[in-house]
# Entry
Amino acid sequence: MREKLKIAFFLGGGCGGCDMAAMDAVQAILDLQRLEIAFWSPIVTDNKYEDLDAIPDGAIDVGFYSGMIRLSDQELAAKTMRRKCRTLIAYGTCAALGGVPGLGNFHTRKEILHTVYFDTCSTENPAGITPQTECLEGECELTLPEFYGEVRPLKAVVEVDHFLGGCPPHHSFVVQIIYNILEKGLEPPDPWITEGKTVCEACARNPVAKGEQRKPVGAVKRLTDGVPDGDRCLLEQGYLCLGSLTQGSCGALCPRVNVPCAGCGGPIPGVKDFGLRAVSAVASLLENEELVAQIPGPAKLFYRYTLPASLFGKKVK
Ligand code: SF4
Ligand code: SF4
# Structure
């Protein structure tokens, strides 16, 4: 039997939801008994960067990096995780594709800082102070990480071995990954750990699976417009569900509870730009051109999780 598998979790620029999902899996992880959690910060322990840096290079078998990279300290930690971990997983949609914080790339750094430090109604900043990476407070020199001009996914900073979508990924994926490594090594056919099937394939509402033709979309609706029919395809009803191009290893959890798929699982294999493909998938089903104008915030809707990893990437000026 192999020695204990050493794993590590690090949260960069994310909400912590991915770590919470992993915590849901903790009992099952511990039941495997052949596992050592070498580092899990900042969500579970108060370990610092220095503690991660002190681990010998290559000493961790599998590292889970969640969150995107916008700050210089996140970049440093990502590079350190890469050195320490023999296998590095971009864990969750922020790490894999930029995620929801990646929507910040629709705005320049200057616009974001101006909104936060000058424009909001609760801000009073008569001296016009914005964050500096260094300042003197009495005799103390204080430093802050640099706020970069864009959000980047993990693969833009270091080499990534595997990607796992989901916002957050279902906790069963964490158990499955660890189990797979322990039993047979982690060798999925694709760098994405999830299966590559679409959410539509997993969805009980799928008209094609019921032997029916997909009906064109006659009206664009939001969830605030009413309660969708619980059996019919949400897209046919006008709720812009992106299940046809999203990886469906989640088992179509959102459509099951009457919520359209927003694409957090990441694109199915072969889709280079999720947003462009989503435009094409939805537009091809609209009954008429006038409906395009009814799509709420189309750029942010179709690129909700993937902008930093898309062909556009970011707003330049
Ligand atoms: S992928 Fe979702 S759950 Fe995970 S850190 Fe990002 S926003 Fe949070
Ligand atoms: S578009 Fe959405 S609701 Fe319709 S079959 Fe696909 S996942 Fe299900």
Remarks:
- The chain has eleven helices and nine strands.
- Residues 199-200, 203, 205-206, 233-235, 241, 243-244, 252, 255, 261 surround iron/sulfur cluster (ligand 2) (CB under 6 Å).
